[in-house]
């Protein structure tokens, strides 16, 4: 039994609800019973004995009582498998699902891509008058699904993922995989989404930390950073502006930088750059110098 079901891990299965056990649903798959744990059930879903149910076969494990088949209806892979059934172009490999993210029962995002320039991957997944995606929405208890176009450039990808919000600009930190997404004030709530849902799902979809910052708040942050750096001996406003534009946003950032890197930013002498870095390192020990602004409530991260 274990061998028969082990190779079906990752498949979509259909079974009949038999009973509840300690909040878990026992599902008859024909040759064996499977467990749909309480945490794997979409919020608000209820089943009764005799109901036909679809689920994602997440794993088969051997326990003291024998093989245990575990199902899920909350996994992002359940969403992927449903799209594979509904969209023939995904089945035949013309369209590829690159990523999926879910807050089960509420909202989901799925990223699709194709090499065929004659095919619109998003339109194909939506279907005529939304027929294909609507079937999936119905299966997921009304979960709203955003279908976005995948792109190998993460900044383009995150713009697509945050739609329908208009993005002003994006600043990326490749080493730490952080994106600062700048939006106008009237786009802030749209980009963030209800209770931060839109930005959370965009971060899950792209695999990057995403900060949503209003343009006004960014201007305030830049102003603070320039003023902060100007507290150092030998630092004038013009140099501080150049450093901030290059990503050095605080005295702490400057103290951790290499003098040669600073020299390239300000196009000055290496000795002067070394002195600035040394001054920053010394300033960190001074409690009178503030290195970080107060927490900014208008910046939402995910």
Structure description:
- The protein has helices at 2-6, 76-86, 88-91, 121-126, 131-139, 154-161, 188-192, 197-206, 215-229, 237-245, 251-255, 259-266, 270-283, and strands at residues 12-21, 24-28, 33-36, 52-63, 66-72, 95-103, 107-114, 144-149, 169-173, 178-183, 209-214, 300-301.
- It has 302 residues and is an alpha+beta fold.
- A hairpin with a 4-residue loop joins strand 2 and strand 3.
- Helix 2 (76-86) runs antiparallel to helix 5 (131-139) and helix 12 packs across helix 13.
Structure at a glance:
The protein has 302 residues and is of the alpha+beta class. It has helices spanning 2-6, 76-86, 88-91, 121-126, 131-139, 154-161, 188-192, 197-206, 215-229, 237-245, 251-255, 259-266, 270-283; strands spanning 12-21, 24-28, 33-36, 52-63, 66-72, 95-103, 107-114, 144-149, 169-173, 178-183, 209-214, 300-301.
